[in-house]
TrEMBL record:
It is found in: Cell membrane. One of its GO terms (molecular function) is transmembrane transporter activity. This is Putative ABC transport system permease protein. It is a multi-pass membrane protein. GO terms for cellular component: plasma membrane. Belongs to the ABC-4 integral membrane protein family. Residues 21-248 form the MacB-like periplasmic core domain. Signal peptide: none annotated.
Length: 419
């Protein structure tokens, strides 16, 4: 604990040359500001990029078929094949640790090439045939009504769930949606629900222009039969889908007479693997932020150390008098260290506060301007703030250590001789 006299001495020493103290403190202020802002900007970039994954279960992969690249068991190279609905049951039975296996079919391409009509209004929307569990893999907010159910699957009901973009394109404002019909490629479907994607970013407009219908109804209405266009597969929480996907590939190759070494026959996109790469990239960027911020902060610390050396030089006679009156070396050293520490912490705390203000302004601008691609919610956690405080404390001690040692090495007699 500091005594009042010690506080008075420290404040007097720091205020003796206010401009010099300000310039010295500014180096630390700027260093810690840069450190916090770099980490906040890195986090904002991470939030923006990972938002492109949406709320889709990141321990998932998509899998589809491609032409074979090798002949096998009398079958030619370049052969096309399709997954079947019984492949889903086989995957669930043969491969443990899978949480969801959802067969999917789709009309048109990713740009939406399907004619959907209601009365005189027509729109081009994405049409998907899905099972009820898909909503657990790709969370969405049901605004009205409900999603697909297993009773719809079993009865092959001609029902659909439409996105807000579909509703906007085919319905007037405030017009009742539930219980109405839309015509998809000439087939009437009853609207039983409306939805929007949870925290939709990136392709949010495309997601909103989507229609979901029961998978079995899709096969019957659009002549797909038992064919499965592609699958969305999610592993249980404590097992990575990346470690299981080869088992899935091997099983599908066996069931469809594909050469086990033919890596081209099955296409896939491993969302878990991609998500891991993104997280790894931003972990590196965070380390770079700490490194660059620490270098800038170090320049401020060096400035404080230099100024403290000058202060010790200016107070040489005072130190000699105190030593002659019986002051211990530690008493002299502790005062120099305390002055350095207080200057560092005060300027650093102002820097953290200023950085917090800048981050708040950035978030306010983003909130008012709307979503920005690949950038969202720049922020730092309390852990970063505590880490910055620890860096400040250590830096303050290091900045005062050399001047403090220099002060205690002085002999009282030599110090008193200096004019």
């Amino acid at each position: 604990m500091f005594s009042r006299d010690r506080w008075d001495e420290i404040l007097e020493a720091l205020s003796a040359n206010k401009f010099r103290t300000f310039l010295t403190a500014f180096g630390v202020f700027w260093g810690i500001t840069i450190l916090v802002l770099l980490l906040a900007l890195t986090n904002g970039l991470k939030n923006g990029v990972t938002a492109d994954f949406g709320d889709f279960a990141t321990n998932s992969m998509f899998m589809w078929t491609q032409g074979t690249s090798k002949p096998y068991k009398g079958l030619p190279k370049g052969r096309s094949f399709n997954y079947k609905i019984d492949d889903i049951a086989a995957i669930k039975t043969e491969i443990p640790n899978l949480k969801y296996v959802s067969p999917r079919n789709q009309l048109g391409g990713f740009n939406g090439a399907n004619n959907v009509t209601r009365g005189t209004k027509t729109g081009a929307f994405e049409i998907y045939g899905d099972y009820p569990e898909y909503i657990k893999q790709q969370p969405m907010d049901i605004l009205e009504g409900r999603f697909i159910s297993y009773s719809d699957i079993d009865a092959k009901r001609k029902i659909c769930v439409i996105g807000t973009g579909v509703q906007k394109g085919l319905y007037d404002k405030d017009e009742e949606v539930l219980g109405t019909y839309v015509k998809i490629n000439g087939v009437n479907f009853l609207v039983v629900g409306t939805f929007k994607m949870s925290n939709s970013q990136g392709d949010g407009e495309q997601d909103a222009s989507t229609i979901y219908i029961p998978f079995t109804t899709f096969g019957q209405a659009f002549n797909r039969g038992e064919n499965v266009g592609w699958m969305a597969i999610t592993a249980v929480d404590d097992v990575s889908i990346t470690t299981l996907k080869q088992q899935v590939f091997d099983l599908m190759k066996f069931r469809h007479k594909v050469d086990p070494t033919d890596d081209r026959a099955i296409g896939h996109f491993d969302l878990s693997e991609q998500f891991g790469r993104v997280n790894g990239l931003f972990s590196i960027l965070s380390l770079v932020g700490y490194f660059v911020g620490a270098l800038v902060l170090m320049s401020g610390i060096i400035g404080i150390s230099n100024i403290m050396l000058i202060v010790v030089k200016e107070r040489t006679k005072e130190i000699g008098v105190r030593r002659a009156l019986g002051a211990s070396p530690w008493s002299i050293k502790s005062q120099i260290l305390q002055e350095s520490l207080i200057l560092t912490i005060l300027s650093g705390m102002v820097g953290i506060s200023f950085a917090a203000l800048v981050i708040w302004v950035m978030n306010t601008i983003l909130d008012n301007a709307g979503p920005v691609d690949n950038f969202a919610n720049p922020s730092v956690s309390m852990q970063v703030v505590f880490t910055a405080l620890i860096i400040l404390i250590v830096s303050g001690v290091l900045a005062g250590l050399i001047p403090a040692n220099s002060a205690t090495k002085m002999k009282p007699v030599d110090a008193l001789r200096i004019e």
